[in-house]
């Protein structure tokens, strides 16, 4: 499978907890997606406690 090509990239929102980025991408078949949004999150851990 061929990869997408990122033509342009811009951050719309940045925080210590995560970012929102807007990319313009070109698919292997030549189609261009102007508004491809990417959520980037900081690393975290989920913990679930079950008691009886």
Structure, explained:
This protein is mostly beta strands. The chain is 0% helix and 56% strand. A three-stranded antiparallel beta sheet has the order 1-2-3, with no helix packed on it.
Features:
52 residues, mainly beta, 3-stranded antiparallel β-sheet, elongated
Short description:
The protein is mainly β. Helices cover 0% and strands 56% of the residues. A three-stranded antiparallel β-sheet has the order 1-2-3, with no helix packed on it.
CA-based shape: elongated
Could you tell me the mean pLDDT?
A: 93
As a percent range, the share of strand residues is over 45%
Distance between the termini: 48 Å
Count of helix runs: 0
Tally of DSSP β-strands: 3
Largest sheet: 3 strands, antiparallel
- Structural class per helix/strand content? mainly beta
What is the helical fraction, as a range of percent?
Answer: under 10%
Q: What is the string of SSEs from the N terminus onward?
A: EEE
| Rg computed from alpha carbons, rounded to a whole number of angstroms | 17 Å
Strand order within the widest sheet? Answer: 1-2-3
The assembly state of the depicted protein chains is single chain
Poorly predicted ranges: none
**Tally of individual domains:** 1
